[in-house]
Amino acid sequence: MTDFTLYGFWESGNAYKVALMLELNDADWRCERVAFFTGETRRPEFRKLNVMGEVPVLIHHRAGGDFTITQSGACLTYLSKHFGKFGPETESEEYDVLRWLLFDSQKMSGFAGPLRFLRTFAGKADGDDVEFLHGRLMAALKALNAALDGRDFILGDRPTIADFALQGYLHWPEQIGIAYDDRPNIPPWLDRIRALPGFKPSEDLMPSGREPETATA
Ligand SMILES: N[C@@H](CCC(=O)N[C@@H](CS)C(=O)NCC(=O)O)C(=O)O
Questions:
Q1: What gap in Å lies between CA 209 and CA 38, rounded to an integer?
Q2: Ligand 1 pocket test target in 7, 9, 14 with most atoms within 8 Å of CB
Q3: Do residues 30 and 53 both lie within one domain?
Q4: pLDDT of 41 strictly over 90
Q5: Residue whose CA lies nearest to ligand 1 atom number 2
Q6: Ligand 1 pocket: which residues have CB below 6 Å?
Q7: Least C-beta-crowded within 10 Å: which of 63, 112, 167, 186?
Q8: Is residue 102 domain-shared with residue 171, that is, in the same domain?
Q9: Same domain for 104 and 175?
Q10: What pLDDT sits at residue 167?
């Protein structure tokens, strides 16, 4: 048995944050595919695993028994403590990382995920919901762009779980339907993340959550 099991699928940027963290730490892990697009997260069996009905679900198979964590920010925090890497090193950094994890969950991945879902997987090009999500995401990207001014990573010169959380969906601008033209600090920051030893795109880390006959991309 591997040390970790991650419930997810490659289309999930939220699962990807955790998969990437496992990979960058060279962890012994496997992905348990969740068939999101046919409603697996809504089924009672999955709700038993996570009452919130969401991936990622991370299970650490420890000597004393399995330890289960959900919410990508909590999973990343756990893994940074477990591996002693990519976490905060001072009290001030601890709260800086925490506020970016919260910002990511609400305003970055929290808007990018649903916007990408509507545009790419539900085929909805416009509408009030799409316009709202687009506007909110562009505002969040403006904040990220400003925070990255003059620094390589969110906390400064080294990557942390704050970067891994925020980047979850941002390698897919075409699928989200956005451009970084007015957010010039974002593409080089994504390049720096892609240059980290062990980096892999989500598509290379997890299977699809779609059934082959419903796949559109
Ligand atoms: N804030 C959560 C968001 C997780 C989330 O939205 N997961 C999606 C896939 S990306 C999901 O499983 N949704 C299931 C559903 O809404 O039924 C996190 O960071 O883990």
A1: 8
A2: 14
A3: yes
A4: yes
A5: 71
A6: 12, 14, 41-42, 53-56, 71-73, 105, 113
A7: 63
A8: yes
A9: yes
A10: 99
